[in-house]
Amino acid sequence: MLLPALQHSPAAERNRAPILECLRSLLATQGRALEIASGTGQHAAHFAAALPGWSWQPTDLHSTHFDSIAGWAAQAGATQVQPARRLDVLQPHWPDEGQTWGAEFDLIYCANMLHIAPWACCAGLMQGAARHLAAGGRLVTYGPYLEDNVPTAPGNLAFDASLHAQDSTWGIRRLEDVAATAADAGLALQARHALPANNLLLVWARADSTAGTAAP
Questions:
Q1: What is the Cα–Cα distance from 3 to 98, expressed in whole angstroms?
Q2: pTM passes above 0.85
Q3: Which fold has domain 10-91+103-209?
């Protein structure tokens, strides 16, 4: 039985294994990670427990998630998960409250935020990542995307319609629009990984450090 402080996302439970498989292939044995929009904290706990050489800094716009983030980390024994910090991607300085971080990050990770946030948050994410990535660092985003010349799964079409019905500023984003916004911040798509349930894991890096085209 879950403790009261532990919020639970069935989607996070389902997708954590395939995401972790991609992260293992991408990351060095140690480094510093910043997670944007940590939500329940299930990803932070699972990934940090499986990547013991990585310090993991969770953040979220809503402090109501902080106890859950700490609870999942404690349950997983992921001692390198840092106390959650409030972070609004639209602010010009990260974090927007409290002390600044002492070093840049080798990984910035953001799952399932872009489609449940105003479009301006995409630019905020890309610009903030460009400011806070260490040399050779990567931004990883995960979630559903629309793509030119790629048929959209019926489930994603229905999901997109439900998002618009909840909030007119929400919706599944076109990958090409996200890439253009990333380019404005100096980032380019380095790799594209198709994951279960019609989601993509995208790897972004500084444009001058990328080579070749994105992997299918």
A1: 29
A2: yes
A3: Rossmann fold (3.40.50)
